[in-house]
Design goal:
Blueprint (H helix, E strand, L loop, with lengths): L2 E6 L4 H12 L4 E8 L3 H11 L3 E4 L5 H7 L6 E4 L1 H8 L5 E4 L7 H9 L3 E4 L2 H7 L1 H10 L2 E4 L2 H10 L7 E8 L9 H5 L3 H5 L8 H9 L1 H13 L7 E5 L5 E7 L4 E5 L5 H9 L13 H4 L14 H11 L3 H17 L6 H13 L8 H24 L1
Parallel strand pairs: 1-2, 1-5, 2-3, 3-4, 5-6, 6-7, 8-9
Antiparallel strand pairs: 8-10, 10-11
The structure holds nicotinamide-adenine-dinucleotide (NAD) and magnesium ion.
């Protein structure tokens, strides 16, 4: 049976992993929509290869280039934020939400509001919208399939179980490329060093988030929304080998873990085939070859991001959306060479201190908080860059 799929963020790292799986099962899928921000030529080539019905660039200024690249293909070109949401709202069997950042929130919500099945990689959307997204999922009868590897692991470990029986959920963290560095070394980390992840190959933003441990902070908030066991039942453990992707401990003290190679095609395949299974091209996991699995407590002195994220979700209201917005601005500034590595979390904490708003109750309110918090983060950035 042919299934239909839309892929938001087709030109990214998760996008490429998804398309690799689709390419290997070409006859099993019909591709409806593919999107990118501005890489129009690359997007057009993918749309042609997969016979997509529509290709959308988020940045409308790239629509001309997309139109030219799709000329004669019969594929509909579209551009801009509204077109992206329209494409995301088209009926399909599964939507893969793989845009990076809060930019993916509105299109993801469009798929949610249609009552679709969404493989959610775009954690920033859920961190920012929180309850607004979760309640929309319930109201519209949508299904969220967690694609982030940790959350996909938890989802698999919870299958068929009662959430009330869960004693504890443990998110594993690789610790990132700077895991063993001293405070002084961390402060001097360059963008090249920060994006050089030891286990995973990912987009630049999430790679920096992994280095600061903000990725785990965002994932802590993401887990809180996806698996409502209460914040006191969520913990983080550093596990440098990235073989155990997360664990669920039940009240009888039985712990279930999901293991696999550190390759996003595993959790993506789990979502694409859910509730069934499909083949992936990956080598079998050889534990004798891995040899050792080790675990450490997170060090929040060298990496304060998980503490900042935990405080933000405990505070609730607009704080998680503020945290995310400030982090996006700070990571961008770090990658552009404007601030040092340690200033990323400093800007986030400074913004959380400066900006407050009442709890957003609608998508529009979440987007307004995101916009205002970004402005505030830019101001915090200026004072940071001056010291
Ligand atoms: P990436 O930077 O490689 O790709 C991002 C995609 O989003 C690209 O297609 C880009 O064109 C598009 N995009 C960027 N800005 C946009 C905008 N303003 N409007 C519309 N489209 C835009 O990122 P990635 O590493 O693939 O990550 C995607 C998401 O998945 C992120 O939320 C990330 O946290 C999450 N995630 C990634 C991985 C991974 O292994 N890469 C693992 C878990 C979760
Ligand atoms: Mg993850």
């Amino acid at each position: 049976m042919v299934r239909t799929i839309s892929l938001l963020g087709a030109t990214g790292s998760v996008g490429a992993s998804t398309l690799d799986l689709v390419r290997r099962n070409r006859d099993a899928w019909h591709v409806e929509a593919l999107s990118a921000n501005c890489s129009a030529t690359e997007l057009a080539a993918l749309a042609r290869e997969f016979g997509a019905r529509i290709a959308v660039v988020g940045d409308e200024s790239c629509l001309g280039e997309l139109r030219a690249a799709l000329d004669g293909s019969g594929i509909e070109p579209a551009g801009g934020a509204a077109a992206l949401c329209e494409a995301a709202a088209r009926p399909v069997d599964i939507t893969v939400a793989a845009i990076v950042g809060c930019a993916g929130l509105a299109p993801t919500m469009a798929a949610v509001e249609r009552g679709g099945t969404i493989a959610l990689a775009n954690k920033e959307a859920l961190v920012s919208a929180g309850e607004v997204m979760i309640s929309a999922v319930a109201r519209h009868g949508a299904t969220l399939l967690p694609t982030d590897s940790e959350h996909n692991a938890i989802f698999q470990c919870l299958a068929g179980s009662n959430i009330e029986d869960v004693a504890r959920i443990t998110l594993t963290a690789s610790g990132g490329p700077l895991r063993t560095w001293s405070i002084a070394e961390i402060a001097a980390a360059t963008p090249e060093q920060a994006v050089a992840h030891p286990n995973w190959s990912m987009g630049a933003k999430i790679s920096v988030d992994s280095a600061t441990m903000m990725n785990k902070g965002l994932e802590f908030i993401e887990a809180h929304h996806l698996f409502p066991v209460g914040l006191d039942r969520l913990r983080i453990v550093v596990h440098p080998q990235s073989v155990i992707h997360s664990m669920v401990e039940y009240r009888d003290r039985s712990t279930l873990a999901q293991l696999g190679p550190p390759d996003m095609r595993v959790p993506i395949a789990s979502c694409l085939a859910w509730p069934g299974r499909m083949d992936t091209p990956l080598a079998p996991l050889d534990l004798a070859d891995v040899g050792e699995l080790t675990f450490f407590e997170p060090d929040e002195t060298r990496f304060p991001a998980t503490r900042i994220a935990r405080e933000a979700i405990e505070a609730g209201g607009a704080a998680p959306a503020t945290l995310n917005a400030a982090n996006e601005i700070a990571v961008e500034a770090f990658l552009a060479g404007q601030i040092g590595f340690t200033q990323i979390t400093a800007v986030v904490e400074e913004t959380l201190g400066r900006y407050s708003a009442s709890a957003p109750g609608t998508l529009q309110e979440v987007l307004a908080v995101d916009c205002e918090a970004r402005q505030c983060a830019r101001e915090a950035l200026e004072s940071c860059a001056l010291v």
